[in-house]
Design brief:
It contains 14 helices and no strands. With 300 residues, it is mainly alpha-helical.
Length: 300
């Protein structure tokens, strides 16, 4: 039996190259090689496209863009990027950029819908130590957690420990940030290149819950970790995935990203996608799992 990852990978390629499936994607091609190269590149691009993770300011940029990466966000990603670029061009050092972000945002974001955004920016950029964060300011705590998780291997991961860090952002009374829920907190860590995290979004959650017969965002987050841990060693023995072995092997973010790429059709991570046929692509995933015997269908 093929693994979940292998099944999804083959399906993602087929959607691009099979004439019967190409109407479902904005990325049709006659070349299996091109389809695989595009897929592999996007799976391995774990840091938010266009961003870096080297300094507190770069982490702040990723935080800000994630903050508006949701339905009915108070401002668009393009407006947030414009705000960040203004701060960046007006200040020469990262320290000055972090310090001035809230003030610039207050002058630029003046609608009532922006109140939670301003609150979040003020909290994340404040230099004041927070007792609940081991007396670190927020950005220092995030950087410490990034350093802690950066080199973890798949079998060193504990879902409860990962979720504990997510709760700092979205749930704990003294540290919760306005506008952030479970999925955005998870995606913030994942978009820093931390492959031990995945985002239980509208594409990933139903697929993982289907596989595990569970329900909910947290359950899907746990499921991505459990499936990756179960399949990582099997993929190491499969020469087709040497490109993944070279990056340390299967991690939750790789599995999460693969499901997202099929569901969203954002295969090149540039925003080019066929949204209309997302339900059909999710149905293809379901049917492929049934055909491979991963999901039993006696009572279908």
């Amino acid at each position: 039996m093929k693994t979940v990852f292998e099944t999804l990978y083959d399906l993602a390629v087929m959607i691009q190259v099979d004439p019967q499936c190409q109407r479902l994607t904005a990325h049709p091609t006659d070349s299996i090689t091109l389809a695989e190269q595009r897929l592999q590149h996007s799976i391995l691009e774990t840091v938010m496209p266009g961003e870096n993770v080297r300094t507190p300011w770069e982490i702040t940029r990723i935080f800000c863009r994630n903050l508006v990466n949701r339905a009915q966000a108070p401002i668009s990603d393009s407006n947030m990027v414009s705000l960040l670029n203004i701060v960046e061009s007006s200040n020469t050092s990262d320290q000055e950029r972090v310090r001035s972000l809230s003030l610039v945002a207050e002058n630029k974001l003046t609608t009532n819908k922006s109140i939670k955004v301003l609150s979040a920016l003020a909290k994340i950029t404040s230099p004041t130590p927070i007792p609940a964060l081991d007396h670190l300011c927020y950005l220092d705590w995030i950087f410490n957690r990034w350093a802690y998780w950066q080199h973890k291997t798949i079998h060193q991961l504990d879902a409860n420990e990962l979720i504990k860090d997510l709760k700092v952002l979205y749930k704990n009374k003294d540290t919760k940030i306005d506008g952030i829920g479970f999925a955005l907190a998870a995606n913030f860590f994942a978009d820093q290149g931390l492959t031990c995290f995945g985002k239980p979004d509208l594409h990933v959650t139903p697929i993982i819950n289907l596989l595990q017969l569970r329900w909910g965002e947290q359950e899907a987050f746990e499921g991505v970790i459990q499936i990756a841990q179960r399949e990582a060693d099997k993929l190491i023995r499969n020469s087709r995935f040497e490109w993944l072995h070279a990056q340390g092997g299967l991690m939750p973010r790789h599995l999460d990203r693969l499901i997202y790429l099929i569901g969203s059709d954002n295969l090149s991570l540039t925003g080019l996608q066929n949204k209309r046929h997302a339900p059909q692509r999710r149905n293809l995933i379901r049917q492929e799992f049934i055909d491979q015997g991963i999901i039993k269908s006696e009572y279908q």
